[in-house]
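FAQ: What does a ligand-bound record look like?

Like this one, built around zinc ion:
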Amino acid sequence: MKTIIKNGIVVTSTDTYKADLLIEKGIIKRISDQILPETDEKVIDASGQYIFPGGIDVHTHLAWPFQSTGTADDFVSGTRAAAAGGITSIINFTNPKRGQTLLDNLQEWKKKGEPSLIDYGFHSIISEYNDHVLEELPLLAEQEGVTSIKLFMAYKGELMVNDREMYKIMKKAGEAGIITNVHAENGDIIDELIAEAISKGNTDPIHHAYTRPPLTEAEATARALAIAEAANAPIYIVHVSCADALEKIEQAKKRDVQVVAETCPHYLVLDESYLSLPDFESGKYICSPPLREKWNQEYLWKGISSGLITTVGSDHCPFLFNGQKTLGRDNFAKIPNGVPGLEDIFSIVYHFGVHEGRISLQKFVDVISTGPAKTFGLYPKKGSIAIGFDADLVIFNPNTSRVITHKKQYQNVDYNLYEGIEVQGAITQVLSRGEVIVQDGYVVGHEGRGQYLFRKKIPAGQSSVSC
Ligand SMILES: [Zn+2]
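The answer part, i.e. the structure of the complex:
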């Protein structure tokens, strides 16, 4: 089966140009001023529309366990929402189980991922240090193509590891060609601040932000970067939310620490004032790190422009408002931490970034596709529009607009973080390995067509990303 996309405007992280694309067996075979159909090719007319490489969301928590139910999206509803929103690959976090090996845990997650509509891979979370973990790291990369792990500096007793454990794991990971994602918040200080707040009766949602102040993120970020430097290993700082943490990253880059930084759409667009909304509406916006004071947004956008921030990930960790978020109505510490965002990340970053003039089209493609692909061992198969790449493509009409509402979303949540916001542009078609999975804005791809992403090793001692 061959497909020709005609008259579109191809956008990559380096260029914007008008061209026709020929796709054969899921791969981009030709790019030319004009490609004429010869026999039975399917022809898609993309006149006046942008053609972007498919979005790559490297920060999702589909099927994340929570009480008896889990997060609101599994791999079916979550990847359907992703497709609708222009995301053609995800890397999801596993969740470790006490006493289970990393490889056994991964097999369970690969099984969960099988019904996906789009391509999917995993970062393995390590919450328990032992010698066995160190032995497994090279196998994870070589046998399974899992070339990223994640460590937490918060959530003591559940996920948190200490500095010595971090050092040992990161060092071994670096040697094995694995990059370490770090959730950088000082868990000990936060736990104490929460206890103090509760003891004073400060239980409203805004205290979620007050008990996780920017200094707890900045301190942990600096410490994580120092540990990476000591271990001579690559590090990926997830969900950078504030200027103070970004400053630590800038300093580490000057010391040649091999660091890649991510922010999330909600930190770019929403702010701390949402945590004071009445009638517990504020509960919808609880995530960690918390939404910050608005002035931080400018620093995050500038960080994207300057290359200090390489990726934007959704941190999609969706909880229902009714029944899950409301568990914390009387105590902010009981509100599940996490927000939905997978379906809107592409549109939100395009609208507030490109349309409102904060970043270029090239930078948009960089943070939404090319940067994530290069960081996590998917390049040069995913992350650009070039001959030999997978035909993961988003056809986008920039000359229209739409209003975001939970009533029209695919994600399985009873609210939308961006409810009522009008965004410029609309995704008309999405192709995954050459197959149309979104047609006229509607998902037509079927369950189980997604493929497992076996990723390349991440070389240590050199910058994994050069963009
Ligand atoms: Zn997360």
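Follow-up question: can I read anything off the structure? Yes, for example: The longest strand covers residues 393-403.
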